[in-house]
Amino acid sequence: MSRRGRGEGAVFQRHDHKNCPPLIDGEREDHRCRGRWVATIDYGWKGGRRDRRPIYGATKTEVQGKLKQALREAPRDRPSDMPTVGEWLDEWLADYKPKLRPQTRVSHSSKIEQYMKPLVGATRLDRLTTLQVEQIEARMTMDCPEPSPLGKCPHKPHHDLSVSTARQAFVILADALGDAVKAEKISRNPADNADPPATYQKQRAHLTTPLADLVLQVAERKGEAARWLCALEQGLRQGEALGLVWGLVDLDAGSVSVARTIEQTGAVGQPKSEASRRTIPLTTRTWAALRARHADLEAGGTPPAPTDRVFTTSPDADRTAWARLLVESGVPHVALHSARQSAARRLDEDEVPVRAAAQFLGHSNVDQTYKYQRGAGLEELRRAIGVSIR
Strand pairing of 249-250 and 255-258? Predict the structure, then answer.
């Protein structure tokens, strides 16, 4: 049951009919009440006094209809405690989401500033409608009506954004409005009845195993094999790889523990889930590359301490190095995170059970691993169904 908003009194029935039995010791005999239904509407403070007015009706439905009409016709003066949507989003992000990961907070803040504030930020929170919530997605994804000569959208926010971006904005707004209901700022969440943007799981472009091996050959010639083996064979996320310290790498046992990350801001963070916090074996090539890297540091007279990072680059510089490596390898550009999908495909080709692959990659469930491993090549499908081409 949704709560009533500020300014809306409770709807209740009065025992003011001549046939209503009297109260006896605080209780009233059961009866079929024909008393009037009543609600109140609060118009705020006037002349130092609260201006509350009753609304009467013969039935509950009638009173509710009159109350809605009165609220629509009420003065549009903004109550002192009623924020705009933009002000509430700022308060919500600062006070209601203190435990967001730094990278997630940056992403939320960016979508609030770029999309939600320009579109509905000036709307009073209690005046936001379901239609407005749905129109946000339509506005973000529609074709630009007046593109520049170069075909780019000159508007803020941009038109022709992806449905995925619109859905992320919708989820953030719906979460913020849900907390506004809990804080009794509004009586209902306008996003509850809105149709969320439809989306689908698009297969991420990734490097096939032969292309990944080609990239690793170039990386080895450049002396960067350890970093990219961590991506293409170990399947470590960028933050997990950059967060590695030598104390988490067991070169004797051939294993690595994922226990910390480097956020996009450069701050030290925690793995994204409990499944991400894991100890996994090193592949043969990764193990050899890390031993060689450690030996080079010792030979240079600076043996690494357990708290020293294995890869000291920043996230931005790391992505730039990845893009440069792909260009030098002559392969199509793919996002760095797609290296995890390449690692997942390699595990599948090596017939590693999907449950073990999920644990290796730090997935919370095997469904995500199946998504990473889908997209078998033509030759693999032929082998799977027993077809040979002579």
Answer: antiparallel
